[in-house]
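User: Design a sequence. Structure:
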């Protein structure tokens, strides 16, 4: 199965994941996209995905982890029919546990994405 990746884009023109990535250094950006590509290859080849790469956070929201120099990037996403992975936004992890507000933000962005795309 071939997966595609999309990013939430709101009607007001905001692109939360793009805004996050643009605040990273060029080498950090490259690592984030390298992680996304690696994750997609594992999915397409039906290989196991370890929890240190991706983890289900509940209610259909997942996180994709990228180890950067001295910090960890988290990109939150959900699945959509047709083998689509929709990335809502990203943030730099500062605590051991994913903050509840980030999970809630991902859910809100998922709802807006579905509303705005008529799903």
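Assistant: Done.
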């Amino acid at each position: 199965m071939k997966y595609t990746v999309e990013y939430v884009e709101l009607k007001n023109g905001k692109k939360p994941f793009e805004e996050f990535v643009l605040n990273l250094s060029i080498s950090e950006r490259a690592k984030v996209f390298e992680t996304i590509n690696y994750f997609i290859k594992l999915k397409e080849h039906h290989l196991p995905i370890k929890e240190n790469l991706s983890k289900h956070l509940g209610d259909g929201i997942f996180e994709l982890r990228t180890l950067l120099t001295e910090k960890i990037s988290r990109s939150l996403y959900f699945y959509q029919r047709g083998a689509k992975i929709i990335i809502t936004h990203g943030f730099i992890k500062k605590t051991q546990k994913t903050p509840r507000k980030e999970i809630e933000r991902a859910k809100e962005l998922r709802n807006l994405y579905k509303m705005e795309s008529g799903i």
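The radius of gyration is 14 Å. Residues 33 and 43 are 15 Å apart (CA to CA).
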